[in-house]
Amino acid sequence: MASSKTAHKLVIVESPAKARTISKFLGRTYKVEASNGHVRDLPKSQLGVDVENDFEPKYITIRGRGEVLDRIRKEAKGAKSIILATDPDREGEAISWHLAHILGIDPDSACRVEFNEITEKTVKSAIKTPRKINMELVDAQQARRMLDRLVGYKISPLLWVKIKKGLSAGRVQSVATRMIVDREQEIETFEPEEYWHVEAKIHAGSKKLTAKLHSIDGERVSISSKEQADEAKARIEKGGFAIRSVKRGERRKHPAPPFTTSNLQQEASRKLGFTTSKTMQIAQQLYEGVDIAGRGTLGLISYIRTDSVRLSDEAVSGAREAIADRYGAEFVPEKPNIYKGRKSAQDAHEAIRPSNIDLRPEDIKASLTRDQFNLYKLVYLRFIACQMADAVYETQQIEIANGSGVVLRSSAERLKFAGFTAVYEEGRDDADRDEHVAGALTDVQEGSEAAIDEIEATQHFTQAPPRYTEASLVRALEEKGIGRPSTYAPTISTILARGYVSREKKQLYPTELGVMITDMMKDHFTDIVDIAFTADMEERLDKVEEGSMQWREVLREFYGPFAKTLEKAEAEIEKIEIKDEVSDVVCDKCGAMMVYKFGRFGRFLACPNFPDCRNTKAIQVEIAAPCPSCGAKLLEKTSRKGRKFYGCERYPECEFVSWEMPVEQKCPKCGSYMVLKRGRKGENYHVCANETCRERIAAPAADEVEE
User: Fold this and answer.
1) Number of Cβ atoms within 10 Å of the Cβ of 707
2) Among the listed residues 465, 431, 429, the one whose alpha carbon sits nearest the alpha carbon of residue 184
3) Is 303 in the active site?
4) Does pTM surpass 0.70?
5) What are phi and psi of 9, to 5 degrees?
């Protein structure tokens, strides 16, 4: 749209969605344009960093942004003033700086505004208080970008020459891959250790309880063999037990803090099954604005890239009022809950929270997609819960002893006050689950006699550490100080796309290629894949942002030793020949035996005579169930986004397709085909695919078909 005769104020943001939302708040005197992300960057065709000239960057206009910039320049010519309103982080600040350079805006002028949330009140308030561009944020972004460019563009060509074309190394991705490789090696070398649990079923009068063996002759019991377990059982069988003590108490459970980026990615993985990239994609939509029926376009959550658990006084006050109104005054703690963030947290922004506490998920469900609703509900309930009172449990610990020095212990608890658990409880990774589940409270008296009904000794073995999932990898990266909120999702996406890591049933496995690259990096680029070194580099970038370190100084200190390491590696690394795995599929164009290749969307078949023959095929994986529509074979396929689905081999003649894997069993109720479902606790079950039926039955125990 051309500029009107009355000069307008031009506001520039990154995305068209954000532009649409903000323009509705600001009215006709403002024109809002989108830059579609970064407009300038280092060139793809060359290093773009002049290491001989104190790391002077060479920025060029990104391909495809020419038309966008022409439109912005046109609007800028007739504008009364220009306001740069990109995201409130390093990347956003850098985008504003590049736009200021292109449009001839003085970066020291009051040209920059930022919104932690996109609501009418926040946007209008921010527009009134512009500031100059924060060059410390810009410099931190520049330093990160150039560090990543130096590592990637210097090591990757070496990998192409020595190993295989198309490989890459990265400052954060290589460390993440190493962590997955190291974990797999831990699993492979793990030696299980035997241990036993001995417990007894007891009655004291009419009261029954289960107690575990706690101590013998005053020493805590640790049983590591059947012989020891049998000996312990024999001591218990002597009987003569009585209730030695009954201790009653209270346990309080505190709510989890509001979401940071990594917490949100972890919880969305556990509770919703989202990948990290999907979580950030949906969260971005909720932040930038969704069209809500009867209300217009609204930003539903605060800024999504943050490592802070801080909340504004206004947000906390709103939550406390809502809790009192919806659940009662007893659910509101005497003082607001305040959470302490990680030592390395930047605390520049609030935690992720709903922008408007009055917008309940159920009230706007009709305006949201299923994924948007589920993620918004997760953020909303977590925020409400974080300002609620503790859950209170009544606890009981009973000790049962006999005259021969045996002490059994029974623990139990009962929820006394639900507190925040009435709204939300944090999910847990399988590795964090507590094996012990407390029993029910029992009204027994000290001194009363207790008789043994049954004794059971069960053998167990220690388990190897679990493989990383996307959720647990994000947690580990954060704990070790690797990367920052904006880097977790792209890092995981990169190592999957490069074929260094594969994902099966949520677990991340290193591929043979990933192991090979990691071993080479550990041998020749020790610092690049060293966790402590990478974490220290993140701290240096943070110091640039704080203004206590110069960005060129960071690059100088890194590049000197790195250049020497690179030179040594080029001389020492021997060429590795990776032979393609030959399949049993004949190329239907030239007759050669096709080979397995790994591409962006996983493995596929390719003709070995490339480039003379460019024939490729998807790998066909058959499943046991026949096509429900025509009875032909069903194939497991992969969508362009890497998601598995199931379709008929006769496509397009037969158009049957399903995201859920059909099984051979038919629904006993309506006769339709059934699909395999996996519960969040690992149990399998079959569900009728007929939406009007949805009959559910347990899957056979042997049903171990992968998702």
Assistant:
1) 13
2) 465
3) yes
4) yes
5) -100, 130
